Amino acid sequence: MRPGELIASDRVRGPLGTEDLSRAWHVLGAVMDPEVPVVSVVDLGIVRAVDEQDGELHVVVTPTYSGCPATEVIERDIEQALLGAGFAPRLERCLTPAWTTDWISAEGRERLRVYGIAPPVGSSSKLSLLGKTPEVCCPQCGSAHTERLSEFGSTACKALYRCKDCLEPFDYFKCI
Ligand SMILES: [Zn+2]
């Protein structure tokens, strides 16, 4: 048995109280996105709900971009973190409603910016209705004087931009 590994009987079993659930949220808040290791699965809005079902910790997860290769990694990380904290997690993948960048928290957006990725601009539904290109600000200097170099950045969910003022290229987390 490795250190930190819990035997089944040590696990938190139901009924789970409010304290247990808030501890679970706390644990989830430390599970980082594998592609952007500064934002957690809670910041991104991937974790939709946490409750107790039949003594197990029931976690509803909505993957970000469909077909995003990180999805399975994320689900495994969530499971491992909760197991490590003594929970008996059961994940449910929920695909409707589909994840949108609107679900990224204010803290998550700020962490993206500090990390050098321009957070999604505006609301996904409004943008798609208008079909217009958002005004993306440079995460380095804050300038709105930017240009899109490529529809795809380091991953499919990001676009590559460049700041015309500080000349730094940067990723923009596309709004969906
Ligand atoms: Zn700049």
TrEMBL record:
Superkingdom in the source lineage: Bacteria
Record-linked InterPro entries: Fe-S_Maturation_MIP18, FSCA_dom_sf, MIP18-like, PaaD-like, Zn_ribbon_PaaD
Residue intervals of the PaaD zinc beta ribbon domain: 125-174
Domain MIP18 family-like: 25-83
UniProt xrefs under PANTHER family: 1,2-PHENYLACETYL-COA EPOXIDASE, SUBUNIT D-RELATED, FE-S PROTEIN MATURATION AUXILIARY FACTOR YITW
Name this protein carries in UniProt: Phenylacetate-CoA oxygenase subunit PaaJ
Organism: Metapseudomonas boanensis
